[in-house]
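Newbie here. two chains, one complex. Structure please?
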Amino acid sequence: MTMTQPDVQALWKYLESRVTAGDRFAGLFATRVADRGPVTLSAHVTTAGDVDTLEAVLPRGAASYPALTPRLGAAFWYERVIHDTFGLVPEGHPRLAPLILPGDPLPRHVEGYGLFTIPHGPVRSGVVESIEYLVETPGEAIPHLNMRVFYKHRGVENRYPGMTAAEGVLLAERTEGIATVAHALAFCHAVERMAGCQPPRAAGLVRVLHAELERIANHLDVAVRLADAAGLAVATARFALHKERTLRLVSRMCGSRFGRGVVVPGGVSARSALSPADIGAELGRLHKSVAADAAALMATSSFLDRLRGTGPLTPDRARQHGALGPIGKAAGFADDARLNRPYDAYPSLAVGSGRKHSAGDALARLRVRWEEVDQSFGLLRQAADDLSAERAADQLLVPCEPADGRALGWAEAPQGEVLYDVSLNGGRIVRCHPRSASFHNLVLMHEVFTGDILTDFPFIEASFGLSVAGVAL
Amino acid sequence: MSIWVLRGLRDGVVTTRWPARPDPYADGWRGPVRPLDSADPADLTDRCPTGAITVAGGTVRVDQGRCILCGRCVAERPGVFTWSQGDTGPAALTREQLVIPELPETDAAVAAARARLAERTRALRRSVHVRHVDGGSDGSEEWEIHALLGPVYDISRLGIFFTASPRHADVLLVTGAGARGMAGPLRTTHDAMPDPKVVIAAGTDAVSGGLLADGEAVTGGVGATVPVDIWLAGSPPSPFGILNALLIAVGYLTPDGKRSR
């Protein structure tokens, strides 16, 4: 539901009251409809079973507006993006440095005797995505960390307008490549909502298969990086092997190791090339070896010592920020879209809410991931069983004539909820605003370095499990 | 710790022996799109979201350096386009060579490029160090490169290693559509590498920019920033494709898949 407020102050006041009442702040962005027209600020808040859009139009020609960040810290990066792209100044913003566009960094955040900055990146050691960390440190402790993500800014959002919905899915798949399926799902859910079409049940099951395999692959990737950071060579190799087997299973099902080309508006493009029975058998083998190696990892005390108490996010901060995915769950704030705003075949599958955690450290995040992996294998088994009960002639695709309008779509990526705000006109995209879980969560890296030292850095970064591609867009 | 010794022995040897021996996964890989010989060129160009399909003089051509493997053309015109089965990664020595069927003037240019590359790769023998730079990727390319370090592909068996310092690097492996913010760091990394060096553009994004090609925030491929020697298509390229490109870079394989030594 879209709710328009008379002015920005009223918008912030209403938004604050919603968040205080227990709803989750899910994003903020600006749009300019006509060339020199007024700018509209749109905020997303979740509510029971849905996501609302709250809007206010700024006066024409406004160069600034009262910032939201002082009232709601979670808007910190969102308002910097608005400043970057529209030149609008959010008055009262605590640190208005450029984020997704290049610019000079501000002076150091903390001052004191012997403090210096270690610039780390954007070309870092190992095979990783480009990002620059400015680590402010007296030598070992990390009192503050700044992140510069603009290096990878690809202008994705500006490429959507003019595309058809069918082309838009292809770009959504490449908006954050390691969460291909989740982004394609969120985009398609928005398009399907406008068109009022309901993908067939068999298609919903195929979507679940791919989404859960993507989750397993991502969580295994985090395990690889954590084991690597701890120098556990065998564990690193074992989890890399399981991840490779997962990606190979996906590629045997659909031809792409990332599930690309599967999700289309109205359903899925093709039946899996493997039979549900074959998928089930392979999953059984995979689950057994992943579970055994995960158990061995969680019994390796030298490894656990590096994670316990490392990079803790307090439950209070997690709730205030609306932390998504495993980062939120590890700190006791769980808002899983599969459970609370279910889509595709999830309503008919037993998702289960999982155990409650509160430690919020790297160890808790890894525990959450292992629980999610178990849960995913359970969902995959159910989906494969249900799929084998469907008849081969069952439809996988319903016609989805794109209708004009605007809608939100979401999906639970391995990193957390992905949210798409899509507007269509005459079958073409007018505007598409993707909000990845990586963007919403990465800013929390600022908060978690209390008491940690430089050698904890790789563990904290790996335990977040985010992708820079989804941040800089 | 002893538990890991036992766990490490669980699955025996999982490492591929490719390229010395064929690998079933590589052979079954659904490669890039190519036009059939019998292709009928009637109204085809707007079927491709990245403009990879062109028709000239009655010949249908696919630019694999632009193809993002969405498969729309194969689904809609099965009589014109097909997947190249078993082609894990079309790697070429000139940008034009990725256009299938080959343009008439390509041969001479490829021969010249091959000679230039051979001269440099003579120096890169048994121990090759690779520096990777992300020039604005979607993140999936990094996963596929990272896979090479795992037990299945294990590139160290071929004497190839990743290095943190460009000073030690022989090969620059670049992914991503050429984000303008990365142009400076990419050029600096390239210039910091000692000669002779080989540059690989890994993936359709790195070759042409893919779906982002015309955007204002990217340069439409990394070729605008660094001189590319090997163009590797794929969205993302498969680990076998990246391995293939690396072996071409060190002069172990030629782009048509032959052992050169």
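Moderator note: The longest strand of chain B covers residues 128-134. The mean pLDDT of chain B is 88. Thread marked as resolved.
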